[in-house]
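Bench log. Compound arrived from synthesis this morning; before running ITC I wanted a structural hypothesis for how thiamine diphosphate sits in the protein. Inputs:
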Amino acid sequence: MKHVLAVLVEDKPGVLTRVAGLFSRRGFNIDNIAVGETVSPGISRMTITVEGSETIIEQVVKQLHKLVNVIRVSNLSEEPSVMRELMLIKVNAEAGSRSDIQQIVETFRGKVVDVSPDSMIIEVTGNEEKMEAIKLLLNDFGIKEIVRTGKVALLRGSMVTRDS
Amino acid sequence: MKKKMTKGAAMITSALQKEGVEIIFGYPGGAVLPLYDQLYDTPLRHLLVRHEQAAVHAADGYARVTGRPGVVFATSGPGATNLVTGIATAYMDSVPLVLITGQVPGAFIGTDAFQEADITGITLPVTKHNYLVKSAEQLPGILSEAFYLASTGRRGPVLIDVPKDVFDQEALFDYKIECEIPGYKPTYSGHAGQISRAVKAIRAAKKPVIFGGGGLIRSEASAALEKLVERAQIPVILTLMGLGAYPGDSALFLGMPGMHGSITANYALSEADLIIATGVRFDDRVTGKLDSFANHAKIIHIDIDPAEIGKNVQIDVPIVGDVKIVLEAILNKLQPGETSAWLKQIENWQKQHPMPGGLKSSGGALKPQQVIREISRLCGDNAIVATDVGQHQMWTAQHFIIREPRTFLSSGGLGTMGYGFPASIGAKLAAPDKKVICITGDGSFQMNIQELATAVNNRLDITIAIINNGYLGMVRQWQDIFYDRRYAYTRLEGNPDFIKVAEAYGATGMRACDEQEAAAAIELAMREKGPVVLDFVVEPEENVYPMVAPNRPINDIIIGGERS
Ligand SMILES: Cc1ncc(C[n+]2csc(CCOP(=O)(O)OP(=O)(O)O)c2C)c(N)n1
Ligand SMILES: [Mg+2]
């Protein structure tokens, strides 16, 4: 099963290497990772999607905790949470197919962010299923390139993942 | 008022003094020159080794004996990379070290400058934590964190890489021993609910065993352990790392478990209904085939490192905490169970299966086990023994009677040949009043043989007992058992005359090929102020038994060899 972990880390040099190194060294499968600042200065938040059984995830969480720069690890898959990812897709779009593409994009509440004579760039935000669905539909037109940010997530409601 | 500024190098030497450091193990070079120049003016002692790896092992031996962090200095590039094996050795065995390496000046970092190596990158997986210092302002905080991290929680090596220009930079020096690290809060006292469950399990158990490891020694838990054993009448099994945590000559001590463990220890673990695992990490050399490990037992696991609990084996009562504190909490509520039938059973196993190899040789070549028993007998209980890695290490674990914590030093987790001799140097400096013996192999000794110069130069009274079988014996044993006796490159042809080597360095040496000579050699070593090198020429193809083949259940034991 896939788990989404929120990892609060001290914003120190090499902290990403420490986390990434831990995953490769211990043979944990990292799906994706997104890093950014938090409301507290000096603290960054990594959102890590990792695949594995309960026992493996328990080890991942414990091993992450052992890193001195890691302040907190929470498994957001265990709680109700909002998960989003942003994807940019460059798709073949000759004049004839643009309106079909446009329709798909609207259905998925995506945005066309660039148009050239024979291609478009589409921006979509959402969860995993939505990403897969739009990819499948756009495949017929020919996808030239894809880039994704990796998942980010927050707990629903007023609960927060604290750094202390 | 103008605040006083301090140079980076002086910050380091002052911090070491404030932390109570007495001795530094090291080797200088270009990038640490400013630090060495500063050191020259301080009362801190510096031991000049002949290879940086030996500096780390010596600091490691010092730390294992004193419980305080061992300190190492080395230069950038090759100096730093030479430390790596020693650091990995200490990391695997949770030994507190603080290592300070010089680095090329800040402006050169990342340019492949002369003697530049990314030592923080290289040691990332084998340190508890490491630092690349950017400026002298950071030094006080980093030094204090390094000592704190190395010597608290699960102990381990911490490396600080200092660019050459930072040694000369000036900044305010306000040193605090105490420090706060937001992401580092070790748990010391165990969870009360789990402790109650452990107490209940102990009361209910009919066949309990205590299975202890290096954590007992690191947390100074021996007294608590002895009380528990005495009051609850529970037998004790200790891993290689745990040897000495409980007296090796006590009736309730069953020996070491696992691959070369005693038959009784392995049977007891396999038959037990309760295993009280304290400061152990269920290493594969101990558990054998995991599916069949301790199938009848409930397991209580006490460890300071939460990540060890449930890592390899499923645990019924997990207790995260300092082993000593948790054992004391258990003792407070202890209600002993009824274990007499179990102890009877264990006594029978012990009678039926004494450790093989204890017999005197019948004429012929010296028996290595016999040599080790004889050294153990003559040393009495005021000795520290360090081993290298191989057959001689296992024979020492089996036959040398280790009575006290911090008197047995061996590379358990990494199994580093070359560890023993430098570790014994560190041990001697840590405990000058103890007899220090290094039991090594003809292979292992040659991995750090150059340290004879260090030992002689510092007049260190150390006995080096080479169990000389002319082979990389442990590897030869595997070839014997698993590879059809094809001894591919395990014959140590071209071994030097170890006595002449000793003499060339200015040490005393003596060779022993039979029992009389062995007795005379050991006696000489007891009398003579060392370093003394004893070359015991032993039976070349003796194997270590009992043996459990890798990934076999630990009660599936090859007894082999002679039987009594
Ligand atoms: C640095 C290192 N290289 C290789 C090994 C693999 N190894 C384990 S035991 C051993 C043989 C050791 O020979 P010796 O020191 O003569 O001890 P003996 O087994 O003969 O007692 C070897 C090569 C190791 N443990 N460490
Ligand atoms: Mg040998």
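What the model suggests: Chain A has a mean pLDDT of 94. Chain A has two domains: 2-79, 82-152.
ITC booked for Thursday regardless.
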